[in-house]
Design a protein that fits this description.
494 residues; alpha+beta; 13-stranded mixed beta sheet
């Protein structure tokens, strides 16, 4: 995080917040756990920021002005950690209720758990729910100054809260890895539910509800349930109340009805919004309504008990690709032309403050030689017998869900669970169909040789939209965003 050092955050008596951790581990002997080929441990930590000790209650998810919490909480924000011990080797899933994790925060958390010897890097995955009613995390993508127009003192406070959150997350991982796990079996199935619509005008509305149930190996008693969906957690709307949104409400209801801890994982929700259409009012009532629908489906899947058993060993891989912009920013002539475009933008009458802040940021980067030339995207695969989990970084649009499901079917994979917002979230990743049309998620409007006014390129701080194939090109051009993402995913799925 660029704005403030850890040493400065922790001086003056501010110390790391202690997570309120709830353990659901049953009494299991170490000997019995060590003998089991598969065992699980899992914990829940409340991460809702409060002041003190958290120095910032600024909220993320919406632009373009300042938005901060003043103590109101509809539903606590949670972090959950589940560790799958595969013949003694830990595989760690960490999920949390925040809107996004920028790259430097992701890398800092990963390096801490790996260097401490808790887990190997490829065996560690973070997924955020993407609730828009949680705290800002970090100061890079998005940059809170660009997004909300806050000052440097506010940025320092945001980074202070980020450090405390990171400490709580690492503590949660450490505790869960070190606890004696429960011998378990795993079972997978999918339900169907529709709680939203495609806000980008694409034909895809995702309806998969993946469910992974862990049962006690001795008596088959349910231990913990993992479930997912793909829809933006914006049902509450834009206010100043902390809320885990429909995801958290669904988890609460599942826990009440099944008596086990429930962990939510977000899917390819970049273009999916809750409601019937864009005219559906966002409100706390919509949180309850849509959360109840997901909970009903998960409970139905568990109660009908048509699961496929999932077995080890875990075969995990973590890779990264570079997503190119619509202009080649390694070419000095292209950078010079881009600078001219942004100088022209600054001269436009009536330019909104956030679009002005963005143009000034790009020009400063050009002058300093720090202009990004691509967007890194981590992609992770966990392969088990009967289930493959694919973790995609960033806000991935629904077309990738459709394409990857088709690819999995061609490869003969039985079950594929696609988790987006995985490890880091620093922008939207659209496929050709959206990149050809433009719009908020595609990062351009009018012309794709500059970031579109008030699009996601502005909110995330990128100079240009991502590269598309030439219009109506099939298959996707090799250097396009779609081709790069699909090639990496296909290699992992193979």
């Amino acid at each position: 995080m660029a704005g403030i050092s850890r040493r400065n955050i922790l001086r003056g008596g501010v110390v790391a917040a202690t997570a309120l951790v709830t353990s659901r581990l049953a009494g299991t002997s170490q000997a019995r756990a060590a003998e089991a080929p598969l065992a699980v441990a899992y914990n829940d930590a409340v991460i809702t920021p409060t002041a003190p000790p958290y120095p910032s209650l600024w909220m993320g998810g919406y632009g373009w002005g300042p938005r901060g919490n003043h103590g109101a909480v509809a539903r606590d924000l949670h972090a959950h950690c589940i560790v799958f011990h595969d013949n003694g080797t830990p595989n760690v899933l960490l999920r949390l209720d925040v809107v996004s994790i920028p790259r430097d925060v992701h890398e800092a958390i990963r390096s801490r758990v790996v260097e401490e010897g808790l887990v190997a890097s490829e065996d560690f995955m973070i997924v955020t729910s993407h609730t828009h009613s949680g705290p800002v995390v970090g100061d890079t993508h998005p940059d809170p100054v660009l997004l909300m127009g806050v000052n440097q003192a506010d940025v320092d406070a945001i980074n202070g809260t980020t450090w405390l959150l990171m400490d709580a997350l690492v503590d949660l991982v450490r505790q869960t890895v070190q606890e004696v796990p429960i011998p378990a079996t795993l079972w997978y199935d999918e339900g169907y539910e529709r709680i939203g619509y495609n806000r980008a005008g694409l034909p895809h509305v995702l309806t998969d509800v993946p469910v992974l149930l862990a049962r006690h190996a001795d008596d088959g008693y349910p231990l913990v349930v993992l479930f997912g969906y793909a829809c933006h957690p914006v049902a509450r709307g834009n206010d100043e109340v902390f809320d885990s949104d429909y995801c958290g409400y669904a988890a609460e209801r599942i826990e009440e009805r099944l008596g086990v801890m429930a962990l939510f994982f977000q899917g390819c929700a970049g273009d999916q919004n809750p409601g019937e259409d864009e005219n559906t009012p966002l409100s706390p009532a919509l949180v309850v309504e849509r959360g109840e629908m997901i909970a009903d489906t998960v409970v139905e899947v568990v109660e009908r008990d048509r699961f496929t058993e999932v077995t080890g060993p875990f075969q995990n891989a973590l890779t990264e690709v570079e997503l190119r912009f619509s202009r080649d920013l390694t070419d000095p002539d292209e950078v010079a032309a881009l600078a001219d475009r942004y100088r022209d933008r600054l001269s436009e009458p009536g330019l909104q403050a956030w679009n002005r802040r963005h143009a000034e940021l790009v020009l400063r980067q050009i002058d300093a030689g720090t202009l990004p030339t691509s967007i890194p995207m981590p992609i992770q695969r966990w392969r088990l017998g009967g289930l493959t989990i694919l973790g995609l970084g960033h806000e991935v649009l629904s077309t990738y869900h459709v394409l990857l499901k088709e690819q999995a079917a061609e490869l003969g994979l039985d079950n594929l669970w696609i988790m987006a917002y995985a490890n880091e979230t620093q922008g939207y990743v659209a496929a050709d169909d959206a990149l050809w049309n433009g719009g908020y998620e595609a990062m351009w409007s009018g012309t794709d040789d500059i970031a579109g006014l008030s699009t996601s390129a502005i909110s995330y701080g990128w100079p240009l939209p991502l590269k598309a194939s030439p219009p109506d090109t099939y298959p996707a051009a090799p250097d396009s965003t779609q081709a790069i993402v699909m090639a990496a995913c296909t290699a992992l799925l193979r």
